[in-house]
Write the structure tokens for this entry.
Amino acid sequence: MNFPADLKYTKDHEWIRVEGSEAYIGITDFAQKELGDIVYVDVTTLGEIVAREALFGTVEAVKTVSDLFMPLTGKVLEVNKDIDSAPESVNTDPYGKGWMIKISIESAPELQDLLSVDAYKALIGA
Amino acid sequence: MKNTALTQTHTSLGAKMVPFAGYNMPVSYSGLNDEHATVRNGVGVFDVSHMGEFILKGDNALNLIQKVTSNDASGLIDGKAQYSCLPNNDGGIVDDLIVYRIDEKTYMLVVNASNIEKDWNWIKQNDAWNVDMKNISENTSLLAIQGPKAMDTLQKLTDVKLADIPYYSFVKGKFDGVDNVVISNTGYTGAGGFEIYFENQHAEKIWNAIFEAGKEFGIKPIGLGARDTLRLEMGFCLYGNDIDDTTSPIEAGLGWITKFTKDFTNRAAIEKQKTDGVTKKLVGFEMIDRGIPRHDYEIADASGKIIGKVTSGTQSPTLNKAIGMGYVTKELAKPDTEIYIMIRDKAIKAKVSKIPFLKK
């Protein structure tokens, strides 16, 4: 499994790529493997400010459904529309084409609480 | 946690293992959609050795089977099998099963892994004849080789003419040099193929021989995940989901395996249901709006009234749409009736559809 060192992670198996005052969010390679074939991602919070650890959407796989939680408080600026027509990209390219949302970072201190790649790997025993 | 004779093989093949009915079982290998397509289009192999097998022997074996099962086993001949269920006394189902007639005085019952102990006790409890019963589950391996290329694969390993075995029939013969293998034209996928029963000691050898024989067809191991999506596309019931101790065979659409040509447990009540009708029915449905139904989601009518529950649901890999089964009130059981599935507090539109979802 692949866990890029330049990303931040959460215990909910999400990754965060910080770009200035914004961040891209998706699920980790571990998460996509656990879920199996993804059917669609349902983001219900576009344009809203969502608090850290609150629900921003759900990801439906063939076998199961999983909630998606905000790793940081922020406004959901953009949803990756490409995964509507190609949901398998969450499985095949979770850190690239499979990104889910772009947010504005509303509370910079929260960044301190995100997991480093090593901490995340330790969490999942990788 | 119990292992099958092939647990080590699954692990070394990289399977994702999960606990299921007390067994450590493979849930997926290459990925659910890929495994599903392999069975629909080629050939795949399931290790379902967790299933239970009982042997009933003697002059009264048939009497006991007739008493505890809903289908009429008296019509079976040697080498024939039938789908059946064990009704309880309260209107529900103890388990569903397959009854195999080996010979006039020898039958094999194949039951769900999660119910082995419950079924054994139930049958024993109903045994007024002291029938010779043996539980051979722990020593028996069961492989399901399913898909359009299953016959071509298996024919390489046996002289038994597989094309001559009709659906729900079996032959006990030599397979890959092993004697007394039960080769049964049955399955839980709707893709065609066979299920083979043999002693654990041969499991690895037979597994390897099948994979060698199926190489040219792209044979793959298949997990329980795809087993569930495959059976659901066919509308086959899964015990514990679609049927259980509280659902009647008539409600579940299993009227075709309840035969009133003989006496059996709770017959009078079941016959009354068949005559008078039932208030709820198990139906298939497909989603019209986006959403995937899951076990235990509520089902509502157009006015928002809750009328039942989803018992099984998934995204169908073959049809590429979300499908499910669930109990609804009789009035809403007709095909094309609009119903609503409650998904995270939202009513998502669906319609009742005929099963099997997958048409031949």
Remarks:
- The longest strand of chain B covers residues 93-103.
- Residues 245 and 351 of chain B are 27 Å apart (CA to CA).
- Chain B is about 20% helix and 35% strand.
- The longest helix of chain B spans residues 203-213.
